[in-house]
Amino acid sequence: MQILYEDNHIIAVNKPFGMPSQGDESGDESVFDWVKEYIRVKYNKPGNVYLGLIHRLDRPTGGVLILAKTSKAAARLSKQFQARQTQKLYWAITENIPSTPHGELKHFLKKLQGKNIMRAYNKEVHASKAAHLEYRVLKTSGKRALLEVKLHTGRRHQIRVQLASIGCVIRGDVKYGKSSFNFDKSICLLARELSVEHPTKKEMLTFVAELPKNELWSEFE
């Protein structure tokens, strides 16, 4: 786990692909567990260590994840995320190239009953939520494209299902398309950049995750 930033109030890490943000039924170590143990050992803290998980990334994705080390920081950061005052940029490798080099996608997303799958609709349907993102093509290689995605809303699987809806399935994402599994069971979606206001210093901080050093991403270096 790479630590991108740490002070008395917050800690930002580069979440490894395939690691859950928090504990789940698999019992695998999560980012939350790892950071909590890191703090306990580094600062020799007895008893329970406070740690607030402010937001989450899907297990097969990687990139910037920020956690709070105090309850005050957790409350203030949570308000920022809820009010959409943070700035999030993602990088994604898609199996096809969008028809336009820059665009906006607006859908209504709804979870399929009994499944961990979202469906995108062009019009509002019962129990759906509005989803909005912008994308631009950074590079192309053969039939694949490297996209930068800016989120305006934060819905479950939003980038994955919205890009799939225009025929641009994220590489490795078998849940939303006919892409084949990546060798490490990841999908090529990286939380590349996150900007937040520091909860006490009131200054803007921007954290950037490096691109993975593997063959899945090397064609776009």
Feature tags:
221 residues; Pseudouridine synthase; 4 helices; 11 strands; 35% strand; globular
In short:
The chain is α+β, with helices and mostly antiparallel strands. The protein has helices at 31-42, 71-82, 158-165, 215-218; strands at residues 2-6, 10-15, 52-53, 62-68, 87-94, 102-111, 118-121, 129-141, 144-151, 189-197, 204-208. It has one domain (2-218): Pseudouridine synthase, CATH 3.30.2350.10.
Number of helices: 4
Order of helices and strands: EEHEEHEEEEEHEEH
Query: What integer value in Å does the Rg equal?
Result: 18 Å
Query: Helix/strand/pairing class, anyone?
Result: alpha+beta
| Envelope shape | globular
Q: Separation of termini?
A: 22 Å
Task: Please report the first level of CATH classification, the CATH class.
Answer: Alpha Beta
Q: Please give the domain count.
A: 1
Mean pLDDT: 94
Count all strands and give the number: 11
Low-confidence region ranges: none
Our estimate of the beta-strand percent is 25-35%
Draw up the topology in text.
Elements: E1 2-6, E2 10-15, H1 31-42, E3 52-53, E4 62-68, H2 71-82, E5 87-94, E6 102-111, E7 118-121, E8 129-141, E9 144-151, H3 158-165, E10 189-197, E11 204-208, H4 215-218
Parallel strand pairs: 4-10
Antiparallel strand pairs: 1-2, 2-4, 3-4, 5-9, 5-10, 6-7, 6-8, 8-9, 10-11
